[in-house]
Amino acid sequence: MALKPIAVEIYTSSHRILGRITPTGRGLFSFLNINTSSYIEVEGALLSRLHQPNRMVGRYSTLSLVKNEVLAVLLSNRMELGATGASRGGYTRISNHWIHIILGGYELRGMIEMHGAFNFATFLFEGDTIFTPLYDATLSAILFPKIEADSAAMLFNKRKVEAIGFLPKNEQPEDASA
Considering the chain, what is the average pLDDT of its residues? Predict the structure, then answer.
């Protein structure tokens, strides 16, 4: 079976990269969380600086990035993530939590899915995944107000998280109660 490249928009602390990643395995979530690889390769990469968002500074057939320095990877739809949850025994309800995340010069807003109630310590420090999905997400660069992006699905680097807060009801999307 031929692997299909996935179009991505990647943010680091200083740059925005557009390109394609061809994941091995079953989607981008599992590919980015492989702990035996410390880098990812972006094909057909277009590189721009955050402080000059309209100026492309590089075009590369392949650009290699250090995984730990990637802050967020935006996708056009949820299906490109692949399987994201661990199976659990018994009857456990998945809960949606609308959150505001501060990490590495960015603010993210969106919805995470968890088993049961939200627990900050469990969410950030348990398990060995680096990247965690955020749905119906928005990204804003704190120092560069022109940098804003919306995404149906995003993977963010939970090792770079500085703070998390719950979004007030009036800041959640209208259909958030469903």
Answer: 88
Residue of 19, 125, 32, 117 whose CA lies nearest to 83: 32
Domains of the chain: 6-79 (2.30.30.100), 92-177 (2.30.30.100)
Cβ neighbours of residue 104 closer than 8 Å, sequence gap 6 or more:
13, 71, 157, 160, 162
Averaged pLDDT, 162-178: 78
Q: How confident is the model at residue 91 (pLDDT cuts 50, 70, 90)?
A: low
- Among 66-70, 94-98, 152-156, the minimum mean pLDDT is found in 94-98
Do 153 and 135 contact (CB within 8 A), yes or no? yes
Angstrom distances, CA of residue 145 to CA of 18, 44, 107: 19, 27, 11
